[in-house]
Amino acid sequence: MENIKIVVADDGSTACKLAFFDESNKEKVVTLISSNRAELGRGFNFGSLNYIYTTNLDKGTKYTFSDEKDALPTSNRSFQYHEQCRASVHHALVKSEIKADNIKLCVTLPINQFYNNDGTENTENIANKKQTHLDYISSDNHKTYKICEVVVYPEGIPAMLLALEDDILPTDTSLLIDIGGTTADLCLFNGKLNNIINMDSLNIGMSAIMDSMRSELNQNMNNIYTMHLDFILRNFDKPEEITKNIHCNIDVMQHARKILEKLYRNIVEFNKGSFTNTRIYLTGGGAKILNVFLAENGVSSKIIDNSETALAKSILLLNQ
Fold it and tell me: pLDDT 10s digit of each residue in the chain, 320 long?
């Protein structure tokens, strides 16, 4: 089949991060972050077309996407193999305005779903994830892309390809923390990924901080939606922007510390002690706020450039 375009979708439960080569400049990588704010069914609209996708013809299942909508509740594990995930990726493809019709899609799974406990690949989960994106999808009022092939990668690990310095020795130990909406993927390794010591996924992420903030804001405000909480979290270090746009005063780090303290304890246990001889690299949507928290606790860490889209970009470069 001609004109098959490779697109990477880091398809998390809170956002889908795309990476692909520019169609007019094959050397340029384009990245896009598409939020997973949707409602089940055909939503209301006025003045503009909603983004509506049908995922099951027999049942008539539809999802309507809009940045102004609240996020549908989901666990990260169930989302990975759910038709909502398929709709989320297709919505990101539509927003990308890619001209090609046929797509080779590279997607991701949390480390503990991609690998078994013995380090072998979990072929059942990988097959299920592939099928999730090969199943039926159509756009009711925008372009429908044909997914010709699906390849699955583990979260976190490929992002290190953009971050490892030349001075790293084979004996150096590094810890990668990929913190997203609902999980934090951990990978402990030697050198430039010469030897992977341990991997795991923790069910702790930015959504828990957002839930904590929502509880406080709902005491004095109405109509607090995911878009408000996402804005607050992205601007946690800019209180004047939060006040200007959301009309509230909130100590984001107070909420973050409660969640990240639990994550920190798990990471220390995973690392089997202090980080004296461990380099820490951060990626994912929560990298910046985790970096601040770790610094408060005397732990140095490095944020991978463009941390939210680093994983998708790295996987794309692997497919050059």
Answer: 568 999 999 998 888 999 999 988 888 999 999 988 888 887 666 556 789 999 999 898 999 988 766 656 555 667 899 999 999 999 999 999 999 999 999 999 999 999 998 889 999 999 999 999 999 999 988 999 999 999 999 999 999 877 777 678 889 999 999 999 889 999 999 998 889 999 999 999 999 999 999 999 999 888 888 889 999 999 999 999 999 999 999 999 999 999 999 999 999 999 999 898 899 999 999 999 999 999 999 999 999 999 999 999 999 999 98
> 17: which 2 tokens?
């991060």
- Sorted by sequence, the CB contacts under 8 Å of residue 186 that are 6+ apart come out as 111, 156, 175, 176, 177, 178, 198, 199, 200, 201, 202, 267, 270
* Contacts by residues 255-260 (CB-CB < 8 Å, ≥ 24 positions apart): 255/209, 255/212, 255/213, 255/216, 256/209, 256/289, 256/293, 257/293, 257/296, 258/212, 259/204, 259/208, 259/209, 259/212, 260/209, 260/289, 260/290, 260/293
Q: Which is it for strands 29-35 and 15-21: parallel, antiparallel or unpaired?
A: antiparallel
> pTM of the full predicted structure?
0.90
Give the SS3 label for residue 272. coil
Evaluate whether 13 touches 201 at the Cβ level (below 8 Å).
Answer: no
